[in-house]
Amino acid sequence: MTRACRRIIHVDMDAFYASVEQRDNPALRGRPVAVGSAGRRGVVAAASYEARRFGVRSAMPSVTALRQCPDLVFVPPRFDVYRAVSAQVQAIFSRFTSLIQPLSLDEAYLDVTQPLLPCPSATGIATMIREQIYAETGLTASAGVSYNKFLAKLASDYRKPDGQFVITPAMGADFVAGLPVEAFHGIGPATAARMNALGIRTGLDLRGQPLSRLLRHFGKAAGFYHGIARGIDERPVEVNRPRRSVGAEQTFDTDIHDWAAAQVSIRALAHRVWSRCQARDLTGVTVTVKVRYNDFRQIVRGRTGLDAVRDDADLEQRACGLFMPCFPPARGIRLMGITVSGLRPAGGTPAPQQLALFG
């Protein structure tokens, strides 16, 4: 099957956790809402669009969010409810295709090249999916339609919230050309900064780079970057892809050097990772941390415990133990990350008793 023949939809629920809370509590509608805790150590797990207008974002410390939006209303997360709503949405997807790749509770790729129902177009299918989601859950979703996964995800962001956009094969390369590389899914802040330093600021700039130069600077990711700059992405929609880990990273605008600043980041990262674990009803026995210095040297340290991670405070404590030997750093730190692996259901059979350290 050629890539031009594929029909891919990326569906993304709009401000999912916060929208569920606004749906279930009419008093919250139209107000800036953050899912999380307002305490001194609290972190925003999700923010409504009303809150986002004030600059409130997920993983932001709650004290910072309240400073930017004094009228912000905090509500505790209800992951059992979010999982139930996600299951409803997944059931709607399955009416149209069996080729579904969930990325999280609130987004997924669908390959509708050969749909289960007679539908005139992928655009029509995306419209019906969004209509059925709203009718059955009371929530809105945005959708992107294209001939590959990379462009479908870009398209779903283009008309948010409650919108839909199509990128045809004839549009693909030109659409990518005008975008800053920071907008590309798969290019994080650190990689975007490296590209900018090399004079690569837009998709058109990226397209102008020889593959040999990209290989020299970006290694095995070079082929992917070379392709997406031309609107090419051959990755299939992967059904039932096993999840091996849950993690998050933070790239700093200014390098950090002291332990106090690191602890703020560790707390936010631990909360973000644990929220993702809760959303999937998962825990894990192995915690791994990553430190990237301002010269792009990187170290990774991990520990497999006797028991699985219990909560975000436990994850924070384990991560601190792994990060602490890195301080004080010889060079400024530009990125920190936390990952939980050795996954199992949160209420499942205990993991094998083992203890290991690597670094």
Draw up the topology in text.
Blueprint: E1 8-13, H1 16-24, E2 33-36, E3 44-47, H2 49-52, H3 62-68, E4 73-75, H4 79-93, E5 100-104, E6 107-111, H5 122-137, E7 141-146, H6 149-158, E8 164-166, H7 172-177, H8 189-197, H9 203-207, H10 211-218, H11 222-228, E9 245-256, H12 259-279, E10 282-293, E11 298-304, H13 312-323, E12 333-345, E13 356-358
Parallel strand pairs: 2-4, 7-8
Antiparallel strand pairs: 1-6, 1-7, 2-3, 5-6, 9-12, 10-11, 10-12, 11-13
Helix pairs in contact: 4-5, 10-11, 12-13
Protein name: DNA polymerase IV
Cofactor: Mg(2+)
Subunit structure: Monomer.
What overall geometry do the principal axes of the alpha carbons give?
globular
Radius of gyration, CA atoms, in whole angstroms: 21 Å
**Low-pLDDT windows of residues:** 349-359
Sheet-strand content, in percent, reads: 15-25%
Placed side by side, the strands forming the largest sheet appear as 5-6-1-7-8
Number of domains: 3
CATH architecture of the largest domain: 2-Layer Sandwich
Helix-strand pattern:
EHEEHHEHEEHEHEHHHHHEHEEHEE
Helix and strand content put the structural class at: alpha+beta
Number-wise, the strands total 13
CATH level 3 topology of the largest domain: Alpha-Beta Plaits
Q: Tell me the name of the CATH class of the largest domain.
A: Alpha Beta
Give the full name of the CATH homologous superfamily of the largest domain. Reverse transcriptase/Diguanylate cyclase domain
* Biggest β-sheet description: 5 strands, mixed
